[in-house]
Amino acid sequence: MSSQKKKSVADVAEMADTDEASAKCTLTVAECTSKPVTASNVATSSTSRPSKEELLELETRRAQAELDLLLQRQQQEKQLHDLRIKVITEAAEQERQLFTLKKELLNSNIKSAMDQGLLLFES
Predict the structure, then answer these.
(1) Residue 114 contacts by C-beta under 8 Å, 6 or more apart in sequence?
(2) CA-CA 20 to 30 A from 53: which of 42, 105, 110, 123?
(3) Are 123 and 110 in contact (CB under 8 A)?
(4) How far apart are CA 37 and CA 41, in angstroms?
(5) How many whole angstroms from its chain centre is CA 111?
(6) Do 94 and 86 contact (CB within 8 A), yes or no?
(7) Which domain of life is it from (predicted)?
(8) Model-level pTM?
């Protein structure tokens, strides 16, 4: 009988683990049962998934928003392209005006030099 009454360290640890697990299970069950299940809870959880029609509507709105963004980006790129053309055209016009002024100045200097007889040759 003394062998039955003596418990090993492993037996005591096992019992402690069992008691601890039992207490955790009880606590978990108590936590789970503290909120009564109502029809509104069940209805809420079942209606949380959107219907096919709602999914189609969401997908349609997403596609429309994406299309709107693409159109907006296309307009912005066209505006940017137009601005680049304007800048390049204005720069080319300024270069043309500068070239014309340099040509006029050079012609004026040549004429002045010819009038003063400073040129050794005539063009």
Answers:
(1) 122
(2) 42
(3) yes
(4) 7
(5) 66
(6) no
(7) Eukaryota
(8) 0.45
Distance CA 84, CA 91 (A): 10
Q: How far apart are the first and last CA of the chain?
A: 139
Residue 117, Ramachandran bin (φ over 0: left; ψ between -120 and 50: alpha; else beta) = left
Q: Which residue has the tokens 């008691």?
A: 19
For residue 67, CA distances in Å to 38, 61, 62, 91 come to 44, 10, 9, 36
Distance CA 95, CA 103 (A): 12
Cα–Cα distance between 90 and 86 in angstroms, integer? 6
Distance CA 73, CA 78 (A): 9
Name the residue type at position 56.
Answer: L
Q: What gap in Å lies between CA 51 and CA 28, rounded to an integer?
A: 34
Each residue's pLDDT tens digit, 26-73: 445 555 455 555 555 555 555 688 899 999 999 999 999 999 999 999
